[in-house]
Design brief:
Elements (H helix, E strand, L loop, with lengths): L2 E10 L9 E7 L33 E3 L2 H12 L7 E5 L9 H9 L3 E6 L11 E4 L11 E9 L6 H4 L3 E9 L5 H14 L3 E3 L3 H5 L3
Parallel strand pairs: 2-4, 4-5, 5-6, 6-7, 7-8, 8-9
Antiparallel strand pairs: 1-2, 1-3
Helix pairs in contact: 1-2
Amino acid sequence: MTYAVKEIFLTLQGEGANAGARAVFVRFAGCNLWSGREQDRATAVCRFCDTDFVGIDGVGGGRFADARSLVAAVADHWGDRHDRRFVVLTGGEPMLQVDDAVVDALHAAGFRIAIESNGTLPTHPRIDWVCISPKAGSDIVQRRGDELKLVWPQAGIDPVALEAWDFAQHLIQPLDDANAPANQAAAVALVMERPRWRLSLQTHKLLGLR
């Protein structure tokens, strides 16, 4: 299998329970909830995505002929240190492409693997950290994992119902759009009302990181 990757880069994880951790991000191209083209946004299931996952032209991106070449690129971005290797598989929707070969090769190279998925496809069972970010109007099949990250507000999705899903942590992340201050206030209000949830901020944006 070949893999279409938009970009690969070394940064700090900016969101969720692993915020602040050094990580290599692998952004796979393609998504099943939006084409990534602005002309299709209004009719997409997910209309608020702020990520460019179209094509393979980003820094470190490309079409990788096999898992070995992809993992070699990940290792190059991590650098010479071999301790606490951490990779985040994201997109787009990474589970359109992540398979046994990728997971096995990353583990063989000493990487702890996290994934950020919309939950419409089952995540690979040997991934070490599963973060699901549900989108209103989609059919979520992955209802268990380490971290449920709900972008808020979202019309058509009930945070109270999500509390029954089997996740170790439930995080609320304010939607970053033109109404950001109001969205932040709404997220704080939800956490104050439903203490099972915890506020998650996009610290990479605050720090000017990728």
